[in-house]
């Protein structure tokens, strides 16, 4: 599904993802974690890939027997969020670098996250296991 990459459309995109996952039998906690991770990924695409200018985000949800995949595709410049140094959330705020918490939340909320640059597009994939 293709969406407009804007903060105004964020809620609509998140609702669509939840609607796709709903019939798959994921529990409420997993669905909440997926929403947190998806929101972080989408906000990063909107602000960084498109720098708040008009753009498109393709979102795919694929359901399998024991897992789901959520794929986010944007046409922004190459950017692998997984290259960021891991953040130590236990450090005091004044000792932490700015940024990096988003990918930390994503890694904590989904079972696997993968990035690739494919056909001049950024492709970020979440894998969510049924528990």
Can you tell me about this structure?
The chain is of the alpha+beta class and about 130 residues long. It has a single domain, classed as Histidine kinase-like ATPase, C-terminal domain (Heat Shock Protein 90, 2-Layer Sandwich), CATH 3.30.565. It has three helices and five strands; from the N terminus they run βααββαββ. It has helices at about 10-20, 30-50, 100-110, and strands at about 1-5, 55-65, 65-75, 110-120, 120-130. Strands 1-2-3-5-4 form a five-stranded antiparallel sheet, covered by helices on one side. The mean pLDDT is about 90.
Task: Tell me briefly what this model is.
The protein is of the alpha+beta class and 131 residues long. The protein contains 3 helices and 5 strands; from the N terminus they run E-H-H-E-E-H-E-E. The chain has a 5-stranded antiparallel sheet, with helices on one face.
Outline the secondary-structure elements:
Blueprint: E1 2-4, H1 10-21, H2 28-49, E2 56-63, E3 67-74, H3 101-109, E4 112-118, E5 121-129
Antiparallel strand pairs: 1-2, 2-3, 3-5, 4-5
Which features does this protein show?
131 residues; alpha+beta; Heat Shock Protein 90; five-stranded antiparallel sheet; 5 strands; globular
Low-confidence stretches: none
Number of discrete domains: 1
The CATH topology comes to Heat Shock Protein 90
**End-to-end span in angstroms?**
27 Å
* Proper CATH architecture: 2-Layer Sandwich
Number of helical elements: 3
Oligomer: single chain
| Strand numbers in spatial order across the main sheet | 1-2-3-5-4
- Radius of gyration over C-alpha positions, nearest whole angstrom: 15 Å
Tell me the name of the CATH homologous superfamily. Answer: Histidine kinase-like ATPase, C-terminal domain
Q: What is the share of helical residues?
A: 25-40%
């Amino acid at each position: 599904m293709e969406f407009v990459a804007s903060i105004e459309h964020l809620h609509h995109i998140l609702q669509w993802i939840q609607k796709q996952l709903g019939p798959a039998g994921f529990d409420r906690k997993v669905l909440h974690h997926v929403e947190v991770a998806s929101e972080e990924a989408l906000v990063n695409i909107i602000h960084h890939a498109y720098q708040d200018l008009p753009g498109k985000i393709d979102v795919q949800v694929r359901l399998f027997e024991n897992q789901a995949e959520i794929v986010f595709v944007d046409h922004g410049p190459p950017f692998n969020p997984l290259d960021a140094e891991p953040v130590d959330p236990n450090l005091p705020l004044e000792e932490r670098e700015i940024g990096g918490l988003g990918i930390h939340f994503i890694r904590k909320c989904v079972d696997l996250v993968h990035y690739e640059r494919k056909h001049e597009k950024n492709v970020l994939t979440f894998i969510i296991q049924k528990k």
